[in-house]
Amino acid sequence: MMKYINLAIAFENMEKTSSRLKLTGILVELFKKTNLQMISKIIYLIQGKIRPNFSGVEIGIAEKLAMKSISKSTATSIRTINKLYNKIGDLGDVTHDVLIKKTQTTFFNEIVTVERVFNTFCRISNLSGAGSQNMKMKYISSLLNDSNPLEGKFIIKILLGTLRLGIADNTVMDALSLAYTNSKKNRKLLENAYNVSSDLGKVAQCIAEHGLEGLDAFKITVFSPIRPMLADRIKNVDDIFIKTKSIVAEYKLDGERAQIHLKNNQCIIFSRSLENITKYYPDVCKKIINKIKVHSAILEAEIVAINETSGEYLPFQELMHRRRKHKIENAILAYPITVNFFDILYLNGENYVNHNYTTRRRKLIKLIDEDDFVKLVRMELVKNSIEVENFLEHSINSGCEGIMLKKIESKYKAGIRGGNWLKLKPEYQNNLGDSLDLIVIGAFFGKGRRTGKYGTVLLSTYDDETDTFPTICKVGSGFTDENLDQFYQALSNKIIKKKNYRIKSKIKADVWFEPEVVIEIIASEITLSPIHRTAYDMIKKDHGLALRFPKFTGKIRLDKIPEAATTQNEIINIYNNQKKKI
Ligand code: ATP
Question: Which pTM value belongs to this model?
Fold first, then answer.
């Protein structure tokens, strides 16, 4: 049994600090106090969840219901709660305040344990249909009845999904490594286990129970997504052939990455950021279950929208319409697709990630019998830069965004962006023609047409070495009225009261956001800047790098988490290449 107050105090301390080191320290202390049965649950709760992200399980309580529950258990009127909410801006803090003022305390308070809170959250998330609202309210009020102000605050925050501690997975892994092995050095082993399971709770449980040896046994499991292998950019094709005689080139299709898990006639599809996206593609599941006869498999494909008449590939935005249509049956008809397979990670109990590209591709060819809907990504062996250029031209003429170059001997490295996969788009050969994916971390209110909305947003890159988000530019151009509305809505529930410790900015924004929304930007070049923090002090003292003439392309990268955005190192590389040209 673990008292919930221990967790609430840790949450409070984490909320107050803006230092990664201190955060790690608080987590280490917390893990040391946690018993074996509870460690995975603590991990999920820290992330404001009750299951790993990919499970799609959300507690999902509406503000109104939370207000009613607070009102019921504290004998405070909804009007008063509303007033306080308008003043303070956070229902967790409101709960804290009204619980302090609560005069009538019950005599026989049942102790609030982490187990009790967790189980109540699970029950709430399972409820649906008629009468569920009342049951939910009963559960919440019962918890709040027995809670002290701090406990109540963090119960409400988790229920509403507003617990924003800003802890990165890497920080949690550092702390687990320190707590259970007394050294940060073993983080890599934890990371390997995380890469094949995408479940930090399970990794934590394993290291707590079995130590480092347990991590070796981490296996790929169908229906647990694997963190995807990613590609580096390449600018100069000739560089590849210095070390290699031949390499495989594949079309780089402009659709949505799909990790397709199959077992016993059941199919689950995970996105690039490991969200369960099965509901958008029931047609894919149905056809694949009928077509690919396996006991179990994990396959990777790019789902692409097509013009049914010409068979031509259509751009990513076309596919994203599927998410906006209310009725999926209508969307299936309106936005036809093809599923283009490019990798196999697991088949009938056998792990394929340690096989080389050739073996994997051969297996895929045997497995996939192509038709109008199911395809193999077009592939060719290339031996020199002329062949690469020709293949690139073919791919662009077919409506692709470029090509992928893959080393023949390379294994599938889950969760890794490295030189074994390289992406080449025609724009990379110009200066900075390629787009960047940047994170919206702040905003400034607009004037004129933009009054009451965000006129300009502050963007950052991702520094994967320090796990922070340094600024790179402000952008106000490229937004249509529709974009502005969309933006205002998309960002409204990401607002945080004070700047997250992972945000590195010299500029003071009107509003700060949890770094979550990724957008696509083009710009004319990268310049040195005394204001922006990307690559700060790395190229010139007291200077960072910034974008010149940045412009929003209209694409919000719903398929990307912030850690998958353009990194600081990528910007430095582009800057260095740009300088070479001059
Ligand atoms: P980008 O921003 O260029 O779309 P990304 O940052 O989303 O790329 P990268 O790892 O850089 O991801 O590029 C690989 C992405 O390209 C994959 O996530 C996948 O969605 C897509 N893709 C298209 N065709 C292929 C292919 N043949 N092999 C692997 N990935 C492919």
Answer: 0.74
